[in-house]
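Annex B. Sample input.
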Amino acid sequence: MKYATFEHGGRERVGLVDTASGRIHPLDVDGMIAILARPRVPMPDLQGGGLDLTEVRLLAPIPRPHRNIFCVGKNYREHAREFTKSGFDSSAHSAGEAIPDVPIIFTKVPETVIGSGEEILYPAGISGALDYEAELGVVIGKGGCHIPRSAAADCVWGYTIINDVTARDWQARHKQWFLGKSFDTFCPMGPWLVTADEVDASNLSIRCWVNDELRQDANTGDLIFDIPTLIETISSGITLYAGDVIATGTPKGVGVGFDPPRYLRPGDCVRIEIDGLGILVNRVGLNSH
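Annex B, continued. Sample output.
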């Protein structure tokens, strides 16, 4: 099933999406976290009623996460190599160190999150190296601490698409990834959440286009550290809660990997598609601040 957060008539609501009919059926719940924490939600009659998707404005599935988004760096081998080769990688000093031995975890603040169709704000005068990163997002339902690999699947409520937008110059200058990843609007997410039973997260095609040019084309089967490993690693010392989001890393083809780099500019359109999860589309707009 597919769940979305949307705005209609000036009110923010949550609904069940029927992509076949192009309609969304509102649910009587108080936000997406209520669904994640309490999976048994009364289902509407999908045979009629609801709203046409063209009548609503889709928001990010979790418009304001209750805490930072967990992110994974260098989790596809070819991307790890292209990033280390770019000279922007503070986690490796040579090509021999490109592939990490353990997951590299960083976070993005909740204020980065926007929905499909919203603008990524180009930080004019602040950064001139804006990059895109197509990623599979994992959404936690059943939380806990010290979760073993064998129990990790039980903790996954579902999946979504994430664009881990990055200011590469800030990432390099500050020798860590938090600031360059956490500008406002730097985490497009959506268009909806898909329950874990509908997809095989270990075998999903992930593709990213910039202005209709295919830049990234890979499969989640190529992850260095799979989802159970990521959940086990993060939860070893941090308690996970319903609504936590993990961005699993991006494949080869990001802007910084080209020679010369091909960064985003105002007016560019980034479109990301993952099998069964829909399409996430965001244009780059100029920040007026």
